[in-house]
Write a structure and sequence with these properties.
Rossmann fold; alpha/beta; about 230 residues; elongated; 5-stranded parallel β-sheet; two-stranded antiparallel ribbon
């Protein structure tokens, strides 16, 4: 009984501190409405475009970078003040104006429509926020402070960027090649295969001996662990 109580207390404590559920969203082809045309909106829009989103910008004026994006047909632009009607069809909403009252109204309107909204510099009214991220090819790391200290999250990102090697992203390419082959193996064998592949420490081999040596080692691993099984 005491254990259950302690477990529940721990859960409730963590739930109170970690109000956000970490996730990576697939937004390719989805409509993301960004209200605001300044530097904050520009940063968010660039990230959305990289992820393949269809971006609609609502603002009376545009940052010069956004003007270029619009001129090149990369974003849709409605030169107007915010109105709730512009949220129609949105999958995600970003309130990035320089007026807190307008941002709050956007959040209210989005919530009434069951839409997820991110309010710049106001996590309490946001359903999600954009963490500081590190990208190494297909490897993405996200750093969160629960929305309370974005500047510190960026600081941690800089520390990690200095310590992480590009070899991690290169090693991931080989691991990605192995994944469908491992998943095609019997369930009871997959864990052993993953462990033996990770035990190669391909990223360290890349750093110390070069990519060619690591790729050769990876090829040998495939032949020994996947090839032999397939021949049986």
């Amino acid at each position: 009984m005491d254990r259950t109580t302690k477990s529940e207390d721990t859960f409730h404590t963590l739930a109170a501190k970690n109000r956000f559920y970490p996730a990576f969203l697939r937004v390719e082809g989805k409509v993301c409405v960004v209200i605001g045309g300044g530097r904050v909106a520009t940063r968010k829009i660039h990230a959305l475009l990289v992820a393949g989103a269809r971006v609609v910008v609502i603002s009376v004026a545009l940052h010069v970078d956004l003007q270029t994006l619009f001129a090149n047909g990369l974003v849709d632009y409605i030169p107007a003040r915010y109105a709730a009607e512009y949220l129609t069809g949105a999958s995600l909403v970003f309130a990035a104006t320089n007026d807190p009252e307008v941002n709050l109204q956007i959040a209210r309107d989005a919530h009434e429509r069951g839409l997820w909204v991110n309010v710049a510099d106001n996590p309490d009214n946001s359903d999600f926020y954009v963490p500081a991220t590190i990208h190494q090819q297909d490897l993405t790391l996200a750093i969160s402070t629960g929305g309370e200290a974005p500047a510190f999250a960026r600081y941690v990102r800089e520390l990690l960027e200095q310590s992480l090697s590009d070899a991690l992203g290169q090693a991931l390419e080989m691991v990605t090649q192995a994944r469908p082959l491992i998943l095609a193996e019997p369930k009871e064998r997959q864990t052993q295969l993953w462990e033996s592949l990770q035990a190669l420490h391909l990223e360290k081999v890349i750093e110390t001996q070069g990519h060619a040596v690591a790729h050769q080692l990876f090829g040998q691993w495939l032949e020994q662990n996947i090839g032999l099984c397939c021949k049986k």
